[in-house]
Design goal:
With 366 residues, the protein is α/β, with parallel strands linked by helices. It is built from 17 helices and six strands.
Length: 366
């Protein structure tokens, strides 16, 4: 592969897209920032072929439509590591999710590596190369980019093609290629990357330990926060922290004075949004209890269900050990607990997992 080429002009980008049209595989990575925004800001797009490495600067005012069209073409395999966040930012900027895909992190996990193995560690263990990760926390939105930043960015795609060849061969040898295909095919659904404000509460920790009325308040506050964050393109924590949100839901303040007494809530929020928040809390208190029966994690299991889940978990561990993969690759605790409750529609009862472990667990369920 040649040295990386930084693309900052439309003519250079058009020429790069033309060259990449001859490639059967594209190694792909992005650098983005979201510390100060709700939506990720694409700052750099790295693409490597067998002969070229291009570092495309989206902040240079380039028209990226032809490049996004190239990434969406089904005849060309796109290879990424831990692809989900990269795909989210590419969907936001280009309107489509690149496909077909090969995720080296997913492939490695299916071969027995740690489920969340990082790119540098995988390159070191699989290929024996060391990667400098000194630019991990760099500000990619600042210009000009330094030589160290550019070298780091190029390194993030430099080894992906070799990793793909090695991991794909290993998957084929173990009969697990279809597993990887199924896992990455799920990434193609644009709904995976969209947050509905009404569902934002599902990410809130500790909801299952709250009383129904407190849960209703927390859900209302979470939906309000998500909407404001999207509206202003600001991180949700800048609008309202989790600590402040949970404190309001639990303490149920009904006056501005009571609201101001919540230590986790900044005075500026009370001053600017206090009346709105009190109105929201009052509405949540007077509303009928929210039915959370669709949220398995919020329901207390019976002793029988707990015992069944423990048996299921042991079967999963045994099967994972026989396959040489982590048990979380076969089943999450949430999926196991759901199946123990009799919820048959989950990841364990679909696709390759049903064949590998799901049928056995379903037979135990009766």
């Amino acid at each position: 592969m040649r040295d990386a080429t930084l693309i900052t002009t439309q003519a250079a980008l058009d020429a790069a897209v033309f060259r990449m049209q001859a490639a059967e595989r594209l190694a792909l990575d992005t650098e983005f920032m979201r510390e100060r925004t709700y939506f990720p800001l694409l700052c750099l797009l790295q693409i490597a072929t067998e002969s070229d490495c291009f570092l495309v600067d989206p902040l240079a005012g380039l028209d990226l439509r032809a490049l996004h069209a190239l990434l969406a073409e089904p005849a060309r395999l796109k290879i990424l590591h831990a692809a989900r966040q990269d795909l989210e930012v590419l969907l936001l900027t280009g309107g489509t999710v690149p496909a077909p895909l090969f995720d080296t992190q997913v492939a490695a996990a299916l071969l027995g590596f740690a489920p969340q193995i990082g790119y540098a560690e995988l390159v070191a263990r699989q290929l024996g190369h060391s990667i400098d990760k000194g630019q991990t926390r760099t500000d990619w939105s600042r210009r000009p980019l330094s030589p160290e930043q550019l070298a780091y960015a190029a390194d993030d795609v430099h080894h992906l093609l070799t990793l793909h060849a090695d991991l794909a061969a290993a998957l084929k040898a173990k009969g697990r290629s279809a597993w990887a295909d199924e896992e990455t095919a799920a990434y193609g659904n644009p709904a995976l990357y969209r947050t509905d404000s009404a569902d934002a509460w599902r990410r809130l920790k500790g909801l299952g330990r709250m009383k129904p009325q407190e849960q209703a308040a927390a859900r209302a506050l979470t939906e309000w926060r998500e909407g404001r964050a999207i509206e202003s393109d600001k991180p949700r924590g800048w609008i309202l922290t989790d600590d402040a949100l949970l404190a309001m839901a639990t303490l149920a303040p009904d006056t501005l004075e009571a609201l101001a007494g919540i230590r986790a809530l900044p005075a500026a929020v009370v001053r600017n949004r206090g009346a709105e928040l009190l109105e929201l809390l009052a509405a949540a208190r007077s509303a009928p209890p929210v039915d959370s029966s669709d949220d398995v994690s919020s329901l207390r299991p019976t002793p029988e269900e707990t015992a069944r889940a423990a048996k299921f978990m042991q079967v999963v561990r045994d099967e994972a050990a026989a396959l040489g993969v982590g048990p979380e690759i076969l089943a999450t605790r949430r999926d196991i607990e759901a199946l123990a409750r009799g919820v048959r529609d989950n990841a364990l009862t679909r696709g390759w997992r049903r064949l590998v472990i799901g049928e056995k667990l379903l037979a135990m369920l009766g």
